Amino acid sequence: VLQNGEVKAGDEMILIDKKDSLSIQKVFELLYSENFERGNIEKAVNDPLIAESCKNDLVKRWGNQL
C-alpha cells in the first residue's frame, strides 16, 4: 500500500512488486484448516511481510508440530 485511503468498486489496482510471500488467503487456510503444511507454516512464520499477529496465531495453532 503506497497511500492510505478508501477503495471502492471500480477502482484500479496495480501490482507494483510481488514478493515471494504466501497470500493472505493461504495464511488463513493454514490457520483454520486441518491440513498441516510444515513448509508453508515455516515460510509464513519467517516472512517479514506477514503480520506478527498472524505469525503468533500460526505458532499457537501448530507450534507443537514444528
Task: Explain how this protein is built.
With 66 residues, the protein is mainly alpha-helical. The protein is 42% helix and 0% strand. It contains three helices and no strands. It has helices at residues 24-32, 38-45, 52-62. Helix 1 packs parallel to helix 3 (52-62). It is elongated, with a radius of gyration of 14 Å. It starts with 23 loop residues before the first helix and ends with a helix. The model has no long low-confidence stretch (mean pLDDT 90).
Topology:
Blueprint: H1 24-32, H2 38-45, H3 52-62
Helix pairs in contact: 1-3
Question: Which structural traits does this protein have?
Answer:
elongated, 42% helix, mainly alpha, 66 residues
Quote the beta fraction: under 5%
Largest sheet: none
Number of strands: 0
Tally of separate helices: 3
Taking all Cα atoms into account, the compactness measure Rg is: 14 Å
Shape: elongated
Q: Which spans of ≥5 residues are poorly predicted at pLDDT below 50?
A: none
First-residue to last-residue Cα separation: 32 Å
Q: Secondary-structure element sequence?
A: HHH
Mean pLDDT: 90
Structural class: mainly alpha
Amount of helix: 40-55%
